[in-house]
Amino acid sequence: MEERGLSILTEEVTALGTRFVVRSEGREVAQLLLYWFHGAKGHDRPYAELKDVWVDESFRSRGIAGRLLDDALAKVKELNCYKFTATSRDNGTRDEVHAWYRQRGFKDHGIEFRMNF
Ligand SMILES: CC(C)(COP(=O)(O)OP(=O)(O)OC[C@H]1O[C@@H](n2cnc3c(N)ncnc32)[C@H](O)[C@@H]1OP(=O)(O)O)[C@@H](O)C(=O)NCCC(=O)NCCS
Protein backbone atom coordinates (compact mmCIF):
# COMPACT_ATOMS: atom_id res chain seq x y z
CA MET A 1 0.00 0.00 0.00
CA GLU A 2 1.55 3.26 -1.07
CA GLU A 3 -0.98 5.97 -0.43
CA ARG A 4 -0.47 9.32 1.26
CA GLY A 5 2.85 8.13 2.64
CA LEU A 6 1.43 4.99 4.24
CA SER A 7 3.19 1.67 3.87
CA ILE A 8 2.59 -1.77 5.33
CA LEU A 9 5.60 -3.54 6.73
CA THR A 10 5.59 -7.11 8.02
CA GLU A 11 7.27 -8.57 11.07
CA GLU A 12 7.35 -12.29 11.68
CA VAL A 13 5.57 -13.46 14.83
CA THR A 14 5.21 -17.08 15.83
CA ALA A 15 2.30 -18.59 17.69
CA LEU A 16 3.38 -21.17 20.22
CA GLY A 17 1.25 -24.09 21.15
CA THR A 18 0.76 -27.36 22.93
CA ARG A 19 -1.26 -30.36 21.83
CA PHE A 20 -2.62 -32.28 24.81
CA VAL A 21 -3.25 -35.87 23.79
CA VAL A 22 -4.94 -38.82 25.50
CA ARG A 23 -4.03 -42.32 24.37
CA SER A 24 -5.59 -45.65 25.25
CA GLU A 25 -3.82 -48.87 24.34
CA GLY A 26 -1.65 -47.05 21.83
CA ARG A 27 -4.60 -45.31 20.18
CA GLU A 28 -5.24 -41.60 20.32
CA VAL A 29 -8.67 -41.06 21.86
CA ALA A 30 -8.73 -37.35 22.67
CA GLN A 31 -6.91 -34.11 22.02
CA LEU A 32 -6.97 -30.43 22.80
CA LEU A 33 -4.94 -27.81 20.97
CA LEU A 34 -3.83 -24.71 22.83
CA TYR A 35 -2.10 -21.78 21.13
CA TRP A 36 -0.80 -18.61 22.67
CA PHE A 37 0.11 -15.33 21.06
CA HIS A 38 2.25 -12.36 21.99
CA GLY A 39 1.97 -8.86 20.60
CA ALA A 40 -1.65 -7.82 21.21
CA LYS A 41 -1.81 -4.03 21.18
CA GLY A 42 -1.74 -2.60 24.67
CA HIS A 43 -0.88 -5.88 26.39
CA ASP A 44 2.47 -7.06 27.69
CA ARG A 45 0.93 -10.42 28.50
CA PRO A 46 0.06 -13.13 25.96
CA TYR A 47 -3.41 -14.46 25.19
CA ALA A 48 -4.40 -18.05 24.60
CA GLU A 49 -6.87 -19.77 22.33
CA LEU A 50 -8.36 -23.21 22.68
CA LYS A 51 -8.68 -25.10 19.39
CA ASP A 52 -10.01 -28.45 18.37
CA VAL A 53 -11.03 -30.23 21.52
CA TRP A 54 -12.13 -33.70 20.50
CA VAL A 55 -12.89 -36.94 22.33
CA ASP A 56 -13.50 -40.26 20.58
CA GLU A 57 -17.21 -41.10 20.79
CA SER A 58 -16.67 -44.25 22.84
CA PHE A 59 -14.73 -42.24 25.46
CA ARG A 60 -17.16 -39.35 25.90
CA SER A 61 -18.97 -38.38 29.11
CA ARG A 62 -16.14 -39.59 31.33
CA GLY A 63 -14.76 -36.13 32.01
CA ILE A 64 -11.85 -36.49 29.59
CA ALA A 65 -12.41 -33.15 27.84
CA GLY A 66 -12.76 -31.57 31.28
CA ARG A 67 -9.41 -33.00 32.34
CA LEU A 68 -7.76 -31.75 29.15
CA LEU A 69 -9.22 -28.31 29.76
CA ASP A 70 -7.92 -28.33 33.36
CA ASP A 71 -4.41 -29.01 32.03
CA ALA A 72 -4.75 -26.35 29.35
CA LEU A 73 -5.98 -23.86 31.95
CA ALA A 74 -2.98 -24.60 34.16
CA LYS A 75 -0.75 -23.77 31.18
CA VAL A 76 -2.69 -20.57 30.46
CA LYS A 77 -2.18 -19.48 34.07
CA GLU A 78 1.50 -20.44 34.02
CA LEU A 79 1.90 -18.25 30.91
CA ASN A 80 0.14 -15.38 32.74
CA CYS A 81 -2.26 -14.85 29.82
CA TYR A 82 -4.69 -11.95 30.08
CA LYS A 83 -7.46 -13.83 28.22
CA PHE A 84 -8.36 -17.33 27.09
CA THR A 85 -10.80 -17.74 24.20
CA ALA A 86 -12.62 -20.59 22.50
CA THR A 87 -14.90 -20.63 19.49
CA SER A 88 -17.62 -22.99 18.37
CA ARG A 89 -20.00 -23.18 15.44
CA ASP A 90 -23.44 -21.81 16.19
CA ASN A 91 -25.73 -23.73 13.84
CA GLY A 92 -28.47 -24.50 16.36
CA THR A 93 -27.31 -28.05 17.08
CA ARG A 94 -24.45 -27.30 19.46
CA ASP A 95 -26.28 -26.32 22.64
CA GLU A 96 -24.71 -29.12 24.70
CA VAL A 97 -21.21 -28.24 23.57
CA HIS A 98 -21.82 -24.58 24.31
CA ALA A 99 -23.19 -25.54 27.73
CA TRP A 100 -19.96 -27.48 28.28
CA TYR A 101 -17.92 -24.29 27.68
CA ARG A 102 -20.16 -22.19 29.91
CA GLN A 103 -20.13 -24.74 32.74
CA ARG A 104 -16.37 -24.53 32.69
CA GLY A 105 -16.18 -20.79 33.04
CA PHE A 106 -16.21 -19.38 29.50
CA LYS A 107 -18.56 -16.45 28.94
CA ASP A 108 -20.36 -15.63 25.68
CA HIS A 109 -18.38 -12.92 23.96
CA GLY A 110 -18.56 -11.46 20.46
CA ILE A 111 -19.20 -13.30 17.24
CA GLU A 112 -16.95 -15.29 14.99
CA PHE A 113 -16.21 -14.59 11.31
CA ARG A 114 -14.92 -17.17 8.90
CA MET A 115 -13.90 -17.80 5.29
CA ASN A 116 -14.13 -21.30 3.87
CA PHE A 117 -11.72 -22.42 1.15
C1 LIG B 1 -17.37 -31.74 23.25
C2 LIG B 1 -16.54 -32.98 23.66
C3 LIG B 1 -15.07 -32.64 23.46
C4 LIG B 1 -16.81 -33.29 25.13
O1 LIG B 1 -15.96 -34.38 25.50
P1 LIG B 1 -16.24 -35.26 26.82
O2 LIG B 1 -14.97 -35.89 27.22
O3 LIG B 1 -17.43 -36.12 26.60
O4 LIG B 1 -16.63 -34.10 27.86
P2 LIG B 1 -16.78 -34.25 29.44
O5 LIG B 1 -16.91 -35.71 29.80
O6 LIG B 1 -15.72 -33.44 30.08
O7 LIG B 1 -18.15 -33.52 29.66
C5 LIG B 1 -19.35 -34.11 29.16
C6 LIG B 1 -20.48 -33.14 29.31
O8 LIG B 1 -20.35 -32.08 28.37
C7 LIG B 1 -21.64 -31.82 27.74
N1 LIG B 1 -21.47 -32.17 26.32
C8 LIG B 1 -20.47 -31.70 25.60
N2 LIG B 1 -20.58 -32.08 24.33
C9 LIG B 1 -21.63 -32.86 24.22
C10 LIG B 1 -22.24 -33.53 23.12
N3 LIG B 1 -21.77 -33.45 21.86
N4 LIG B 1 -23.31 -34.29 23.37
C11 LIG B 1 -23.78 -34.35 24.62
N5 LIG B 1 -23.25 -33.72 25.69
C12 LIG B 1 -22.18 -32.95 25.49
C13 LIG B 1 -22.65 -32.63 28.50
O9 LIG B 1 -23.12 -31.83 29.55
C14 LIG B 1 -21.81 -33.77 29.05
O10 LIG B 1 -22.33 -34.24 30.26
P3 LIG B 1 -22.93 -35.71 30.32
O11 LIG B 1 -21.85 -36.61 29.86
O12 LIG B 1 -23.27 -35.88 31.75
O13 LIG B 1 -24.08 -35.71 29.38
C15 LIG B 1 -16.94 -34.24 22.82
O14 LIG B 1 -18.33 -34.38 22.88
C16 LIG B 1 -16.50 -34.16 21.36
O15 LIG B 1 -15.36 -34.50 21.02
N6 LIG B 1 -17.41 -33.71 20.48
C17 LIG B 1 -17.08 -33.63 19.04
C18 LIG B 1 -16.09 -32.52 18.77
C19 LIG B 1 -16.60 -31.20 19.26
O16 LIG B 1 -17.76 -30.87 19.09
N7 LIG B 1 -15.68 -30.42 19.86
C20 LIG B 1 -15.97 -29.09 20.32
C21 LIG B 1 -15.55 -28.16 19.26
S1 LIG B 1 -16.18 -26.54 19.56
Structure description:
- The protein has 117 residues and is an alpha+beta fold.
- It has a single domain, classed as Gcn5-related N-acetyltransferase (GNAT) (Aminopeptidase).
- The chain is 21% helix and 28% strand.
- It contains 2 helices and 4 strands, in the order E-E-E-H-E-H.
- Strands 1-2-3-4 form a 4-stranded mixed beta sheet, covered by helices on one side.
- Strand 3, helix 1 (64-78) and strand 4 form a beta-alpha-beta unit.
- It starts with 15 loop residues before the first strand and ends in a 14-residue tail after the last helix.
- The model has no long low-confidence stretch (mean pLDDT 94).
- Coenzyme A is lined by residues 53-55, 60-66, 88, 96-97, 99-100.
Which features would summarize this protein structure in a list?
alpha+beta; four-stranded mixed β-sheet; Aminopeptidase; single chain; 2 helices; 117 residues; binds coenzyme A
Strand content: 25-35%
CATH domain topology: Aminopeptidase
Mean pLDDT: 94
Q: What's the CATH architecture?
A: 3-Layer(aba) Sandwich
Q: Which class best fits the helix and strand makeup?
A: alpha+beta
Largest sheet: 4 strands, mixed
Q: Segments where pLDDT lies below 50 for 5+ residues?
A: none
Give the helix tally: 2
| Spatial ordering of strands, largest sheet | 1-2-3-4
Q: What's the CATH class, please?
A: Alpha Beta
Order of helices and strands: EEEHEH
* Beginning-to-end CA distance, first to last residue: 25 Å
Helix content: 10-25%
| Hetero groups | coenzyme A
Give the total of beta strands. Answer: 4
Number of domains: 1
Oligomerization state = single chain
